[in-house]
Amino acid sequence: MRALVRAVGITSVIAVPQGVLVAGQSAWSSMAHDARDPLLASAAMHAELGPAATLEKSRGTSVAELRDVLAETQLWLRDKAQYQRLPRDKTALSAAELAALEPIFTKQQPLLVDARAVADIRAAMALAREFGLRLVIVGGTEAWLVADELARADVAVIIDPQNILPGSINAPRVTINAAGKLRAAGVHVAFSTFDAAWSSVTLRQFAGIAIADGLAYDDALAALTTVPAAIYAPVVAARRGATGSSTARKLPSGTLEVGARADVVMWSGDPFEISTWAKVVIIGGVVQNTDTRQQELFRRYR
């Protein structure tokens, strides 16, 4: 699968855990063919708001439960020794869970919250303000309705540009030109298919359709490159041995510069055209082998 993903010009992916309320940490994975250690231990913390987050309980319940998790972690961070001496019930977070949540309070990781409805998006923003967290909205079916609020709060949104049907009665207001509306308001947008690894081969085609639906070309390109890189800037910086994470807040428009991680793809033409292919894929400064199993079989039996 890594060879197939690499062959379509994708240099790295995020492996996201599945779960309710707080799913856990995701991992950034390099698609390099010779990567000895392709996985980084953690890239972001993932949570969910809405009825599905608490197994169809009320929307308010999911917000209250996530706030309890964050408040408990904050209490632990203020005085870890004192926290251990406090009486706790069986539902208290374990030491491992608290340690996993710590990076979002130290800004080493963003908190990615799957929130589809306006009410859930606003609740996630309120929690981020209360606890001083760097928030990214995932899914964001109705995010375009609060685009101005997201822009003012500097909250990026990861969406599926082909999300044209309401996936739930809880977030019915969907529009095919959501990406364009979000960018027009100043929101930084990234794209994902939110599916199995093989579906990533269609991602650039989806971005091309988003352009047809009103998104500027440069913004579509950024949604697949520089915006995801900025969202995960601390982990990318750690991978290349750099210090600091200033790009995490600046969300750069896109440059090739000295000291940056050398992931570069050269295309045969417009990358958003279906007939275009990745001619050269460079990951970490190394030219990659882009042969796939399908190509090997084609050459053998042609």
State the strand order across the main sheet: 1-2-3-4-5-6-7
String of helices and strands? HEEEHHHEHEHEHEHHHHHEEEH
**Which radius of gyration do the C-alpha atoms yield?**
20 Å
Mean pLDDT: 85
Instruction: Please identify the structural class as seen in this structure.
Output: alpha/beta
Hey, roughly how much beta strand do the residues contain? 15-25%
Instruction: Give the CA-CA distance, first to last residue.
Output: 23 Å
Overall 3D shape: globular
Helix content: 25-40%
Let me know the largest β-sheet.
7 strands, mixed
- Uncertain segments: 241-254
What is the strand tally? 10
Count of alpha and pi helical runs: 13
Which key terms come to mind for this protein?
302 residues; alpha/beta; seven-stranded mixed beta sheet; three-stranded antiparallel beta sheet
Q: Can you tell me about this structure?
A:
- It is built from 13 helices and ten strands.
- α2 (59-78) packs across α4 (95-105) and α2 packs parallel to α5 (118-131).
- β6, α7 and β7 form a beta-alpha-beta unit.
- With 302 residues, it is an alpha/beta fold.
- Strands 1-2-3-4-5-6-7 form a seven-stranded mixed β-sheet.
